[in-house]
Structures are given as C-alpha cells and as structure tokens.
Amino acid sequence: xxxxxxxxxxxxLTDYLEYCAREPGSPARTPSTxxxxxLRYLAAQIRQRHQRFxxxxxxxxxxxxxxxxxxxxxxxxxPQTLSWGHVVALLTFAGTLLERPxxxxxxxxxxxQQQELEWETNVGxxxxxxxxxxxxxxxxxxxAWLEAHDGWDGxxxxxxxxxxxxxxxxxxxxxxxxxxxxxxxxFWRRLSYRSFLLALFWIIHSGGSQLHEANIMKTFKxxxxxxxxxxx
Length: 232
Known about the structure:
Number of strands: 0
Oligomer: single chain
Shape: globular
Structural class: mainly alpha
CATH superfamily: Blc2-like
Distance between the termini: 48 Å
Order of helices and strands: HHHHHHHHHHH
Largest sheet: none
Helix content: over 70%
CATH class: Mainly Alpha
Number of helices: 11
Number of domains: 1
C-alpha cells in the first residue's frame, strides 16, 4: 500500500533541495506542489534575514549529510517543542549546504584545487542522500507529529498570509534555537578549545539560546570529547 505522507514528503524535499543545488544562473523549475512554493518563500526570507550567518556554510567542505543529521537530532529531538518553524529552519540550512559557487570558479585549476572540483561533483550525490535522510526522519520518528498537525496541508495552512504575526513569532524562536546549535557545531569543528569557550560564553550571555546554561555546557563537553576523539 502506498504511503501518501512519505511520497509527498519526498517530493517536497526533492523539489526544494534540487532547487538549491541547481547550477548558478540556471532557471528554477516551477514549484511542484503548494508546500514546495511555501517552503521556497519561507527559506528565501530566512536566507535574507540571516545572510551573514548562513554564508559561512555555503561551499561547506565537510560531510553535509552528517552535519544535517546531527542538527536534526539536536533540533527536533523534543516532540513537545517541535514546530513547523524548526522544520523550515532545518530544511533551509540543508539547502544552504548544497548551494554551488558562481560560474567560472573552477576554470584553470591548479593541482591544489582538485579538491574543490571534487566538492562540486559531490553536490548532486549529497542532494540525493539528504532527501533520503530527511524523508526517513520526518516520516519515521516525526511521523506522529506530522500527522497530528495535518501533514503538509497543515504546513501550508499554518504559514498562510492570514496568520502572519503568529508564524513570524514562532519562526524567530525556532531560528534562535536552530542557529545556536549550528554555531556550537561550527566552533567545535573549526576553532580551538579556547575559542570555542569564548564563543559559548557569548551565546549564553547574549540571550540567543533557548537552552539552560547547564544543558549547553553538557552538550558542549560531550561534543568536544567526540571531536577530540575523531581527531586523534
């Protein structure tokens, strides 16, 4: 028997992530479903408002699938706080990782730039892997939540123009928690232990986190131990 929710979720993810991964300058396909059109609109608003932060993840050279999987676990782990805003923030971030550099970036490659070309060729493959990962997570561990909120019909209704103030408030809250998690991941991967602590101190005391300080420290210590083990 066909799984209507899974099929619709896969179509939405394929539509959006392929839209993000298309060649720069190439025309975008028309959204295939109403929810695809809504997602593109919302993601564009997020990218515009948080351009400075998200630009750090364009051209990401690490494991995109692993990073998105980790963010999904951290961001959507609690069914009581899960919201459409969290889902949109996660999908927007996944799409950002797939965005390609401008045309001409790979002309006259030197031997040291071959890795850049390899990254470019992996975009299409990672796009498929991210569709599979996110579809499995959304229609697996989060299926009950999706069905309780009327699936993608509920998604479109929730973000309809009739309720602009409510979805904007919810998105702001979701983006703060989402970006806090991503900032933590970014620093423990890219910077030194001391730099990470300074960044963590700023996040905690700037009021940008929705988590309690003790929980952040617990997550940080565990993440840093894992990172330390992987690099030794």
